Amino acid sequence: MQLPPAAMRRHYLFPLLLALPLHAETLIRACGGEGEWVPSSYYKRDGSRKTSDVAGYSPDVLKAALAGSGYRVAVSLLPWQRCQREVQDGSRYQLAMGVLYSAERARNYQLSASYLHFQPGYYYRRDFFPGGLVIPSLAALQRYRVCGLFGYSYAYTGLATAQIDTGALDYPAVLGKLALGRCDLLIESLEVMAGQRRLGRLPPDAGLLEGRPLPEAPPLVAHFAVSPHMRDGTTFLNTLNAGIARLQRDKQLSELLRRHTE
């Protein structure tokens, strides 16, 4: 029997419709710092060789929090300052991972619920301070030359931006400054420096490096930063926060973190 033209079109279109996904997923492009803020995000290693694949606690939390929500995630590592600019613009990247809170960032982005807590610390070299270097208070940092990384926030130290040398782009560079005596101490969390050691990114004389908790400083609290220009950004942020709350309630956050700190 010959089908009429309209019926023939429906006949051939029906299998094609069945092959299409019922719900198209929305792609979220996320970025972290290519300086490898371990355990938040870093490049996977094949033995001692760094690959181009991104791993870390932040990508794991992001993907688990959004599982089944209609969003899928693609993660890249960029120079940290560029990552922040890209997300603020929102055209190519919609989310930055591992963002420490500051009033400026709260104005520039939509910040998620917190999902990561670190212990702030300071590091010095025993060859320059053989008797040790004790920082009794945050105010005492004023007496020392302090180093940090470009684009990172150190508001929690109480130091003005101009008081911290942030010319270094990565950890090998800033530790090189410390070794040359260009600064007295480096501000970084204890967990991140432990992660640098695990990745083999500390210098051969890293045994001279001494780290201690930074007094008076509360735990560093990290968030996901969502672009203020993201379409349906409020809906996405609510979905992300609900996912983080679920992971926290089910005690999955600690399990995800353990994968990257053991």
User: Any idea of the CATH topology of the largest domain?
Assistant: D-Maltodextrin-Binding Protein, domain 2
Structural class by SSE content: alpha/beta
Percentage of residues assigned to helices: 25-40%
Number of beta-strand segments:
13
Task: Using the coordinates above, name the CATH class of the largest domain.
Answer: Alpha Beta
C-alpha Rg (nearest Å): 23 Å
Number of helical segments with 4 or more residues: 8
Main sheet: strands, sense, barrel:
6 strands, mixed
User: Which residue ranges are poorly predicted, with pLDDT under 50 across at least 5 consecutive positions?
Assistant: 11-22
What value does the average pLDDT take? Answer: 90
- H/E element order: HEEEHEHEHEEEEEHEHEEHH
Q: How many domain units?
A: 2
**End-to-end CA span:** 69 Å
Query: Any idea what the CATH superfamily of the largest domain is called?
Result: Periplasmic binding protein-like II
CATH A-level architecture of the largest domain: 3-Layer(aba) Sandwich
Strand content: 25-35%
Instruction: Indicate the overall shape.
Output: globular
Can you walk me through this structure?
- With 262 residues, the protein is of the alpha/beta class.
- The protein folds into two domains: 131 residues, 3-Layer(aba) Sandwich (D-Maltodextrin-Binding Protein, domain 2); 94 residues, D-Maltodextrin-Binding Protein, domain 2 (3-Layer(aba) Sandwich).
- The protein contains eight helices and 13 strands.
- Strands 1, 4, 5, 6, 7 and 13 form a six-stranded mixed β-sheet that branches.
- Strand 2 and strand 3 form a beta hairpin.
